[in-house]
Design brief:
Two copies of one chain form a homodimer.
Chain A (H helix, E strand, L loop, with lengths): L2 H5 L3 E4 L2 E6 L4 E2 L2 E2 L1 H16 L3 E9 L6 E12 L3 E9 L3 E10 L9 E2 L13 E2 L14 E5 L5 H4 L7 E8 L10 H4 L19 E8 L8 E6 L2 E3 L2 E9 L5 E10 L4
Chain lengths: 263, 263
């Protein structure tokens, strides 16, 4: 198994329980990436309900995840014709992540498609800014995936925030690993926070909750991604994501809610 | 207790369990409104964690809810300084709705606010279209709440869909009942589906999942609401909502994922 498939493997150990391991190197400042943790918990639930695709999954983050063994407890709530619903909870010393999801088997629908907008207009990957990992910043996690940032969202091109809470760019897995719908759960949480470009005194914004909707299985190649924050208010901010494949298909939408720490 | 407070009352019966009742009249074609069911389940969880406000709650809909007694089983997963996380599952003969949520105590934050856009620009309530209930369509549910639709989203003004999957309007509870943050969970699912205005052969689009983020407690008065669908693709559509109070504060954001039935 290649990188992400191996790092999200969940082995059934009976009675709806799975054994997995948070692998080193998937962290940001020591804490495992939230999309990565969601991917592990969703992989276990998808296996339990025997449906490969996370149609809609929501993670609430309880405690930081550190490298080491974890257990995922799953519970099937409904198994219907098109979809199945399951809970999965990842636990180490205590509960780390709680996930509620609907899983299915995605097929090209064909019959009714209407899009109000298309994929983000990005410069080619070679004209975008690659992010390579360091032991601190950019974090080790960047070595597990590959992203290229649009220089127009200027922070990573010029060191100066663009002033707009937006990040766009390309995503793929390293070593030509194929991107399945579980890997899309990593893609929606892989980019630098939008607020880094907002030119506001927010250095850290812990995610409370992340929801991803997966619409289709991606074609091979780079994914085009765009993340935007429209509302910083009430002590919270949302980050909305869109992920499109190389054929121009919308493959995932995401929204996360993050805390704005009190200054 | 007034209408919604009474209709969402959840009485603790021990060991994290609550007794409640799906009241008649909160239905659309016989099935209880999804936001109403979420409000009942969130009310129980909020009580269990002793935090009044549903900061981020996600419901997955398992089976239609019919009038009658239900049980809500809650489980607290984490109780921290600012937030608590809990699951709640509503059951009648079988599980109806599964909810995962983070609850807190919302306070005006003041310290950092940035909004990329403001409340929707609506004609005054008296110049909008009131929707009154019938036994079929508009459904009985409309008698429990009060909405006034912007005539620009023309279906309900002219009988002709506007062609754009958007619905905007005003929301309040009947009989001057105050709107708390649990009632906002009803507001985000109270309007006619956006796709009714899309002029597409979609008559019915069952909700798989609904997530609401509550940013603030609303001031008394009407709420300004806007719901938009941008992507009908892959056999699914999303409906994004924004709810603002009369003082111009963003009080809630929502997104739901619905199935597009095969034609």
């Amino acid at each position: 198994m290649k990188g992400l498939a191996s790092a999200t493997a969940a082995v059934p150990i009976g009675a709806g329980k799975y054994s997995a391991e948070i692998q080193p190197g998937w962290d940001i400042m020591g804490n495992a990436n939230g999309g990565y943790l969601l991917a592990i918990a969703a992989r276990a639930a998808a296996n339990e309900v025997q449906r490969p695709d996370p149609v809609s999954v929501t993670a609430h983050y309880l405690r930081p995840g550190m490298p080491g063994p974890v257990t995922i407890e799953t519970q099937v709530l409904r198994s219907g014709r098109r979809c199945a619903v399951a809970r999965s909870t990842m636990t180490a010393d205590g509960p780390l992540v709680a996930v509620l999801g609907t899983y299915g088997t995605l097929e090209p629908s064909g019959h009714l498609e209407r899009l109000e907008s298309g994929p983000p207009d990005l410069p080619p990957p070679d004209d975008c800014i690659p992010i390579e990992p360091t032991e601190t910043f950019p974090p080790p996690f960047m070595g597990r995936i590959e992203i290229r940032l649009d220089p127009a969202d200027s922070l990573h091109a010029t060191g100066v925030p663009s002033g707009k809470a937006r990040v766009r760019g390309w995503f793929r897995l390293r070593h030509e690993e194929p991107i399945d719908t579980i890997a899309l759960l990593v893609a929606v949480d892989a980019f630098p926070p939008t607020i880094f470009n907002a030119d506001l005194p927010i250095a850290w914004s812990p995610t409370i909750e992340l929801t991803a909707h997966v619409r289709a299985r991606p074609q091979p190649g780079w994914l085009r991604c765009a993340f935007t924050t429209r509302f910083i208010s009430g002590g919270f901010l949302e980050e909305d994501g869109e992920v499109w494949d190389e054929s121009g298909t919308l493959v995932a939408q995401s929204r996360q809610l993050a805390l704005v720490p009190k200054g």
